[in-house]
Specification:
Chain A is α+β, with helices and mostly antiparallel strands and 112 residues long. Chain A contains 3 helices and 6 strands. The relative contact order of chain A is 0.27. The chains are: A alpha+beta (112), B alpha/beta (279).
């Protein structure tokens, strides 16, 4: 049986724009927070994947399962610091098409 | 594909209803954070009308487009239909590309007796646009629920004893008042703290939901980095079993309506000679 998963792509931005954290630290923070709130089973079901992170602009895309979208939003809202630095992760745009997410990211880059 | 500037619709306008005055000390950082978050309405706790006017007339505040509710009303033109007026203010914020930040004066009264609360209310009612009551005494809360000078009853998720009951919720519903839920404990990093907050939050929402009482959500941020926009607050509220669709009005619309009503009441042009209240 073929199971087609429906994914959601969340374009996010890290604030403030100076001294931005690296992708690895953002990844591990989101994974840790996800496990704290929703457990290991919830985390594996979410199917998180990080893509197109630009360290200069602090923007990137997170892919997740469509059923885990609201959980991911909760986690992004809960994060207040990465390492010893205060940050805010803002979800800017959510879509079901990766190309649309990439186009939005390009638009953001052209604006800045 | 929409332009990033025009991407967010009016449904995502945001309000932070319980900001401490310390956050406004560094206006540059404040502006850098709230602009991308698109938070446009701020109730500043402890700031009276005089303080707000002093701040908005300063050179620095003009640089960051900070204004007061009265000034905003004058800019768009006062209308007597509140719903229509609310929509006009929302349109004005959107047409200014979410760049306007409106400050509202607010006072949270933490009195432990009805007498003290009565005295404070008569002293302060003309100085603040928003007056909230936060106390552990259920009798004081029930008295405050039917007083027209009180706008919100503030409920903290981390409080040791649950102060509200079904009778209070019914009273609030009867007098068309809102509960203000502080969600900042949901950002706590220790596991025990957050589980206590979620547990008591779920209990409170169950009570509020059973009587269909209005509520608003706020973060009560200690620093600029704990500010969250309306969408983020609504997702966080899902941890307390508050459905996403039920919290739509509780992150901007209810706050704006109450602030508008009070700002129009307090504006000097609307005051007429009448019965003077004993102080």
């Amino acid at each position: 049986m073929v199971v087609i998963t429906r994914d959601r792509y969340v374009v996010f931005q890290v604030l403030p724009n100076e001294d931005l954290p690296i992708l690895l630290s953002i990844k591990s923070k989101i994974w840790d927070e996800y496990q704290t709130i929703f457990g290991i089973s919830g985390t594996t079901g979410a199917g998180l994947f990080f893509d197109n992170y630009k360290e200069e602009e602090g923007t990137g895309i997170i892919r997740c399962d469509h059923k885990a979208l609201s959980n991911l939003m909760v986690i992004l809202s809960r994060i207040t610091n990465i390492g010893d630095k205060d940050v805010i992760l803002i979800p800017l745009y959510t879509t079901g098409l990766v190309n649309k997410a990439k186009r939005y990211l390009k638009l953001l880059e052209s604006k800045s | 594909m929409k332009d990033p500037e025009a991407f967010m619709s009016d449904s995502v306008l945001s309000c932070e209803n319980y900001v401490s005055a310390d956050i406004l000390r560094n206006l540059k950082l404040f502006s850098d954070i709230v602009k991308p978050l698109r938070i446009n309405l701020f109730s500043v706790d402890g700031f009276n009308l005089g303080n707000v006017n002093e701040l908005i007339t300063s050179e620095e505040a003009k640089k960051y487009s900070i204004t007061s509710m009265v000034e905003m009303c004058k800019t768009v033109g006062v209308k007597f239909d509140l719903i229509d007026f609310k929509q006009t203010i929302k349109d004005a914020i959107i047409s200014a590309k979410f760049d306007t930040h409106i400050l509202i004066s607010r006072k949270t009264l933490e009195e432990d007796s009805i007498e003290n609360l009565k005295r404070k209310l008569s002293e302060l009612r003309n100085e603040y646009e928003i007056i909230a009551v936060k106390t552990d005494d259920i009798k004081v809360l029930k008295w405050a629920a039917h007083d027209r000078r009180v706008d919100y009853i503030t409920v903290d998720l981390i409080s040791s004893n649950l102060q509200i009951d079904k009778a209070l919720c019914s009273l609030m519903k009867q007098h068309n008042k809102c509960f203000e839920l502080i969600l900042s404990p949901l950002l706590l990093s220790d596991n025990k703290g957050i589980s206590v907050a979620i547990r008591s939050g779920k209990k409170i929402f169950k009570l509020i939901s059973s009587t269909n009482t209005q509520f608003i959500l706020t973060m009560k941020p200690e620093s600029c980095y704990k500010l969250r926009n309306g969408i983020q607050i609504r997702y966080l509220a899902q941890l307390l079993d508050i459905p996403f669709n039920r919290s739509k009005m509780s992150v901007f619309d209810n706050q704006l309506l109450i602030a508008l009503k009070n700002a129009m009441k307090l504006d000097k042009s609307n005051l007429v000679n009448g019965i003077k209240e004993d102080s």
